[in-house]
Predict the 3D structure of the following.
Amino acid sequence: MTADLILRGGTVVDGTGAPAYRGDVAIRGGRITAVGAIDPCEGPELDVSGMVVCPGFIDLHAHSEFTLLADGRAWGKILQGVTTEVSGNCGLSAVPLLGEARRQRAEDLRDLGLTQTWEDFAGFARRLEDQGIAVNFCTLVGHGNLRASVMGYANRPPDGREMQEMSRLLEDALKAGAWGLSTGLIYLPGAYAETGEIMALARVARSHGGLYATHLRSEGDQLLEAITEAIRIGEEAGIRVQISHLKTAGDRNWRKLPDALRLIREARERGADVAADRYPYTAASTDLDAILPAWAYEGGRAAELARLKDPDTRARLTEEILASHPRRDDWERVLIASVRTEENRSLEGRTLAEAGALRGCPPWEALYELLLEEDLQAMGIFFSMSEENLREILRQPYLMIGSDSSARATDGPTRQGKPHPRTFGTFPRVLGRFVRNERLLPLELAVAMMTSRPAARLGLDDRGVVQEGKSADLVVFNPEAIRDRATYEDPYQAPEGIRHVFVNGSVVVRDGAPTGARPGRVLRKGG
Ligand code: ZN
Ligand code: CU
């Protein structure tokens, strides 16, 4: 037998959840060619004794479509052991991106030094592949893209023609290789969609075997209603439902967890295919203006800015915000993660309470001013979740790990602001903190939650397990040393303990450092 490489003497955690065993793994031509006790043979060997050898991690919840295009090195992901990312989540994807949708995202693209040259999935995929990527890329189709491409940011149901056009755009992307549909029902224009509209699109996705992933309409005050809506879409459209970043947001909603889990459990018992993903942190990250009540975004960016400028509307905003966040320390639980202007750079990493103190005004006034100065382009980190609930969520039999982050590097165009530490820390944090230190999850199970479970969820049958014939996406890590190092203050820190990472048989991380190789592919459903 000849091999390109033999990983010799490691402990194989094969991704299925089966008990770990001592074994060698041979790679050839981008595939795993043998697993077990392999005789000495031709070809180079790598001593991995004392290390775990497992499938590359599949990050089921990523937002990398644009950062990967800006910088294909994807250090934040490969240094964690991620070998495949699923982007296009929360209603936002690279395609379709037409009309109003295109205009709205142009600024995000510009911030990364990008211009839109693609018209459809094939064009986007070609551009990614031409420039080279270190990880494999899958995408869902964002409902926000479909809606804004066809009907802009109008707050009304689509008419018959618009519905048809959305369905057609979705179908085109699915035929070209997208893996399903995603919604972001707190964002615009997703929030304008009624259940029936999503149902109709979910049926289109279903007819192509796609997945439906949803950022629920509410993760806090209306959490149970929102889960019920997602399950209903799943049952009536007959589609697999993925609840994105399952959580109970806001301490007054923490007590809802048992009911939330019961809704999911009962749906599964009825035969509905509902599952969820989660990142191992208790802070969320999204646009800073997510603090504002929903009516504040009505009509789009210009209307929102006008409201923030108007003293009467501001007073009304303050009244509502203070009613739902009455405590002084609520303002200490929101960090300013990133801004666009140099003038406000020093606020990155500070709380809104601090921003208020620095400006000599109440924190809400500081928030409004900041949003105006930044043209709404500011990100926040929100400490809104319960640690205990996180543990309970991680233990659900249908749970997978998803980082909810974009691929970034420690330098170059994707180093911007202070993103959530999940960007560099998610997978090692689960393995170090929740597997080794707290013994919340057995190692084999945690690895399955990062590999075979998301692969099966997506229908990616070539990956997610260490088995002969599968694509050679592999991680070699030290189970005693693995830990995340990224923090809210200093998020651009690679984890420890990930030794080697292989994507399609090529080494992208060797001895803990990126090699510069870009063997990643755009993975197409059915392709
Ligand atoms: Zn989301
Ligand atoms: Cu997301």
